[in-house]
Amino acid sequence: MRVDKAETKHEKIVEHYFNLIRKLRAGEQGSVEKLVDLWETDGRFEFAGAPPVTATFEGRHAIHVLYRNRFEANGMPLRLEGTDGYKDERQLEVALGVVDTEVHRIRMIDERVVAGWTTTIGTSDQRGFKISGSHTFTFRDGRVASLKIVVSPRADEAPNADLSLEGLAVEDIGRLSLAAWAVV
Questions:
Q1: In the chain, where do the E strands start and end?
Q2: What is the pLDDT, as a whole number, of residue 1?
Q3: Up-side HSE of residue 171: CA atoms within 13 Å toward CB?
Q4: pTM above threshold 0.85
Q5: Which one, 29, 60, 63, 104, has the greatest CB density within 10 A?
Q6: Could you tell me which residues come within 8 angstroms of residue 10 by beta carbon, excluding any fewer than 6 positions away?
């Protein structure tokens, strides 16, 4: 949900982008192609988070593969490391569950559009967290020329989503973040 209203053509493209991301995460057919259509042929997609959530994708083909891989990650099985209290094998085999981004603000800064957000990431067994970050878009001829995503290295509790950090090792948070963003 947005706090402010999109005013420019580029802000409206960013709103549309996040709507398509929500559809991609919901497994809606055609969402990958619609996302790719927003991009310039030589577009650049960069994750600038803390390792392991770092990567750069150059060109429309690489960006298509990124979105396709994220589409395929819906519900993907994961093996967690777990903490001392979660060494039971059944508790370590999970699937990617909820991945939901709430965009708090979209605004123009110079020639860029910046979107601040919080994403909830969880497993099928209700372990998870919230993480904050931003998307910074640049445009050329009405298409996305570049996108830089900065992801906070800090995971926060997500009690409103009925998720708990309990039993997740630091490596598990990284693994879930990779699956959520499909770095991918």
A1: 39-48, 54-58, 77-79, 93-109, 112-123, 128-140, 143-151
A2: 41
A3: 7
A4: yes
A5: 63
A6: 108, 113, 137, 139
Q: How far apart are CA 107 and CA 14, in angstroms?
A: 10
21 lies in some domain: yes
**What CA–CA distance (Å, rounded) separates 74 from 71?**
6
Cβ atoms of 126 and 172 within 8 Å: the answer is no
Split into its structural domains, the chain has a count of 1
Q: What is the CATH number of the domain that holds 15?
A: 3.10.450.50
- pLDDT higher at 33 or 7: 33
Structural domain that includes position 145:
9-181
Distances (CA, A) of 94 to 1, 77, 89, 122: 29, 6, 10, 10
**Residues constituting the chain:** 184
- Any domain includes 77: yes
92 DSSP assignment = H
Residue 2 within any structural domain of the chain: no
